[in-house]
Amino acid sequence: MIEAVGKRAEIEKRFPAGQRLDAGDAILAPGLINAHTHAPMALFRGIAGDMRLREWLERYIFPAEARNVSPDFVRWGTRLACLEMLLSGVTTYADMYYFEEVIAEATREAGMRGILGQTILGFPAPDAKTPEAALQRAELFLRRFDRDPLIVPAVAPHAVYTNSDSSLKAARVLANRYRKPLLIHLSETRRENDDLRAARNLTPAALLESLGVLSGRTLAAHGIWLDDADMRILARRGTGVAHCPSSNMMLASGIAPVRKLLAAKIAVGLGTDGPAGSNNDLDLFEEMDLAAKLQKISLNDPEALSAETAVELATIGGARALGLANEIGSLEPGKRADLITISLREPHAVPLFNVYSQLVYALKGSDVRDVMINGRLVVRDRRVLTLNAAEILAKARSYQQAIRKSLRF
Amino acid sequence: MIEAVGKRAEIEKRFPAGQRLDAGDAILAPGLINAHTHAPMALFRGIAGDMRLREWLERYIFPAEARNVSPDFVRWGTRLACLEMLLSGVTTYADMYYFEEVIAEATREAGMRGILGQTILGFPAPDAKTPEAALQRAELFLRRFDRDPLIVPAVAPHAVYTNSDSSLKAARVLANRYRKPLLIHLSETRRENDDLRAARNLTPAALLESLGVLSGRTLAAHGIWLDDADMRILARRGTGVAHCPSSNMMLASGIAPVRKLLAAKIAVGLGTDGPAGSNNDLDLFEEMDLAAKLQKISLNDPEALSAETAVELATIGGARALGLANEIGSLEPGKRADLITISLREPHAVPLFNVYSQLVYALKGSDVRDVMINGRLVVRDRRVLTLNAAEILAKARSYQQAIRKSLRF
């Protein structure tokens, strides 16, 4: 827990016996929060790209997953993702994938905080043949990690277009029974909205509201095509949004109305999305940079989203969207000690006139030096203390061969 | 010079006595080309931002320059910029600034290749009170660096809106007399186009053409608001364009029609622009990533600009735009040995399914390991051999204090 925040002299006086982690010439910041990803997909990094979401999912990702995703794949993929996220200053991440209990084990082992959602899909998935089976898996998962200090287990119906009304409702009922969050992709593509409008004359947000799915903590990923009425629903329900600028640009999904979402008092965090063709890395520094630049260029206004706001999105904004603002997301006494130091020793770090501008537009994930999560030092001077990097990279390279063979490309 | 390109066994057989630089698990690539920047502005990194070009120039940059820019400032600013560019794989850069002969000295000392343009402005600049004085400076500069192996001296009238017709014409005459390039900002903002349309019913490109300014090697920075007729002019004249996606997004200047420029057979390179509020770093890896993503999202087409094309823009595209495609920009026998290695040892580098996708969407400037320019190793295992990094960073920090004082903020 953070006991106090203040100037060095003051802190040294109050805690004379305190252990000192000298960060040298560095910035001390709250740990970054990756509000939307699919961690194990790190093993599919860049497997296909430069194409639209549905084609990418149906032609590459779903087949690759059907042939490769196992508990072992998920374990090593999560370790690889955690290694990458820790080295770029992410201390908490929200995930939606399969075998989520394995992801939870690997995340806990890495010493990271995770809001981890077991996926519910309307068609056979690598870990469940039916949505009913997936819901059973999810319940076991919620029970097992109910009171974990680092893991918040969650239920993750993939999207409205991949789930029936009844499995969407069942997912909410289950999440509420255990007082856990529900994670879902929402209005990511124009097609998602158009299809539902044509079939049922509803927006995805309105459908969720009509089914009672938003009656509890919900994190909606993307939210690109939300309209004003949708935003009123989300604001009223306290639903958070994970903005994923890199993924949205790369898949040409659209530009989320971030300025409007913030004006509507909706909590917005930043996510990388999965690293398999919708981003290809898990770097929140890049998402901060893109979030600011994308609002500026799309709204034709260089003041549309400032560097300071971009830092907020990556920290306290993400915490609010995840319902964890009382615990993480800022350097305040009483919050969990989720901290990072960012070195100012590289040439791109000097001179420094404005710390927010530097963080968003000049500093990199590779400048992160130390990472503390829940009071435990997990990265020291760019060495991850909780994971065996050499073993993880070797395993990733061997998965590369196996995946290549499985897809014959 | 590159003698041969081929598989390891073949090369070892042909050159048994060759010295070997083992890059381990790495990609060997042509050096990146930063086709537009203002290197010494590294000392103004992030001095002001989140605002529009004219306000930023007139309220912050021009006053800061008037009070601070001296030969000493330019020397240390260039050293800082070269240090940063070398460490992120840039081997050649195009520059427009003041005291360009000092920039040339510092660039040569760093072992980098530079196409360096002495600025011509219609109002008093830090190094010349009048455009006539600037043209005189430019001529001395062209003479002095006429046959340098690394430096191509150039003439750089800032833009049509900051120069008279006569100084634009004189700049071209001077450049042609020495057979050197002319660098200029062109159609960067809608206002630049609108003002000229209102005053003279011309586009900036049409004005340059009518004045004969394009009758020789020209590199136009930005080119955001070029119309179809402008593109026909540039294509006919062989004028290159430096696309600066980061700057264009940050200043909300607009989105350059890169796909159309390429379709019109115009040579397009990538530039960072200056690091003082229109970018804040000098990282071509980020420009590759943005160039691809910005065309995709703006054209609503995930195939609008592929990873492979983004790599081309940063290498051979820049070489073509600068008129140096016979010498640099690709790994081909007979070209200069401007090479970089990019390490694949970080977690975001594995697995690897597509090398272009990895370079553009996953790898970072910080992954660059070795840099060779003109056959000389200038970076080895992330240590710059030609510059004193500690001294440069110390000097940059002391300039930070002086600049802060000069602006009283």
Tell me the CATH architecture of chain A.
Alpha-Beta Barrel
**CATH superfamily of chain A, please?**
Metal-dependent hydrolases
Helix content of chain A: 40-55%
Q: Describe the biggest sheet of chain A?
A: 5 strands, antiparallel
Q: Let me know the number of strands of chain A.
A: 13
3D structure, described in words:
The structure is a homodimer of 409-residue chains. With 409 residues, chain A is α/β, with parallel strands linked by helices. The first copy, chain A, has a single domain, classed as Alpha-Beta Barrel (TIM Barrel), CATH 3.20.20. Helix content of chain A is 43%, strand content 17%. Chain A is built from 15 helices and 13 strands. Chain A has helices at 8-14, 53-68, 71-87, 100-110, 131-144, 165-177, 190-200, 204-211, 228-237, 245-250, 258-263, 284-299, 307-321, 355-361, 389-407, and strands at 26-30, 32-37, 90-97, 113-120, 151-157, 182-186, 218-222, 240-243, 268-270, 339-343, 368-373, 376-380, 383-384. In chain A, the strands form 3 sheets. Chain A has a 5-stranded antiparallel beta sheet with strand order 1-10-11-12-13, with helices on one face. Chain A has a 4-stranded parallel beta sheet with strand order 2-3-4-5. A 4-stranded parallel beta sheet of chain A has the order 6-7-8-9. In chain A, strand 3, helix 4 (100-110) and strand 4 form a beta-alpha-beta unit. In chain A, helix 2 (53-68) packs across helix 15 (389-407). The longest helix of chain A has 19 residues, at 389-407. The radius of gyration of chain A is 20 Å and the shape is globular. The mean pLDDT of chain A is 96. The interface between A and B is large, with 71 and 71 residues.
